[in-house]
Amino acid sequence: MSGSVSVIITTYNNPEYLRRVLEGYTVQSTYPDELIIADDGSGGETADIVRLFALRSPFTVRHVWQDDLGFRAASIRNRAIKTSSADYLIFSDGDCIPHRRFIEDHKRLMRPGWFVQGKRMLVGKEESLKFNPAGAAGLVFKCIRGQLSGCHHIARFPGFAPEKKGLRGIKTCNMAVFRAVLLKVNGFNEDFKGWGREDAELAARLFAYGLRRKDPPFSAIVYHLWHEENPRESLAENDRMLEETVRSGVHICANGIRKNLALNTRESRQAGTK
């Protein structure tokens, strides 16, 4: 299926990782139509890297920034969604280097009525300092040495993407969905602050809207560079909000791209089932 594609990359004060991630998009077998940096309040070094990259990039690059008021991934992703002009949005993170066929694979998988949950391979702490995904033989060697996890993802079966139900494994470091659908469900829920579950809550509403989930195990891969874990102090409250969304069956959030929507739970549930 044809359609314009935007990659939305969330980042916060990790300019060296971001620089390497951006380089990964210059060697893609298929370029995106645009790439948007969704910046959750980084300092000037990140802005400089994005500016210099945009000057030589073969595709449009945009930088969307918000004040540093803590972890607000939902808010900055919504700003990026509004900024994007593409039909199809691929979400990833500033610590995830894409496989060289990442865009090509996602374009192959895009279909109305579906969203795609891609996979990641975890790169070890020491290996992350110098990791370069070029060359399958090198990846196999790194797997043997324990420097990469999820090594079965190295196999290439493009287009194979079985349906998966439920929220297990939902991660916006590698997720794709049509922009028009994101507008229908009102984007990410900005009530989620601090690390965790804003991605699963979005997926719960995509299911409620009537979408189905594809999980490609052998294509559309990213390599997740090691970093310290984010603080988890908001996780209990975020879990509670996720459970409420699942229980209610609504497909729209009140505090998303549009603010302060008055929701009728029964009508939202019926709209989602169509």
Helix content: 25-40%
The tally of beta strands, per DSSP, is: 10
Largest sheet: 7 strands, mixed
Binned strand content = 15-25%
Strands across the major sheet, in which order? 3-2-1-4-8-6-9
Radius of gyration: 18 Å
Order of helices and strands: EHEHEHEEHEEHHEHHEEHH
Q: Outline the low-pLDDT stretches.
A: 265-274
Described by the principal axes of the CA atoms, the overall outline is globular
Q: Quickly count the helices.
A: 10
Primary descriptors:
274 residues, alpha/beta, 7-stranded mixed beta sheet, 3-stranded mixed beta sheet, 10 helices, 18% strand
What does this structure look like?
This protein has a seven-stranded mixed beta sheet with strand order 3-2-1-4-8-6-9, with helices on both faces. It has a three-stranded mixed beta sheet with strand order 5-10-7. It contains ten helices and ten strands. With 274 residues, the protein is α/β, with parallel strands linked by helices.
Sequence-ordered SSE layout with sheet pairings:
Layout: E1 5-11, H1 15-26, E2 34-39, H2 44-56, E3 60-65, H3 73-83, E4 88-93, E5 96-98, H4 102-109, E6 114-117, E7 119-122, H5 125-128, H6 136-144, E8 174-178, H7 179-184, H8 198-209, E9 212-214, E10 221-224, H9 235-248, H10 265-273
Parallel strand pairs: 1-2, 1-4, 2-3, 6-9, 7-10
Antiparallel strand pairs: 4-8, 5-10, 6-8
Helix pairs in contact: 1-2, 8-9, 8-10
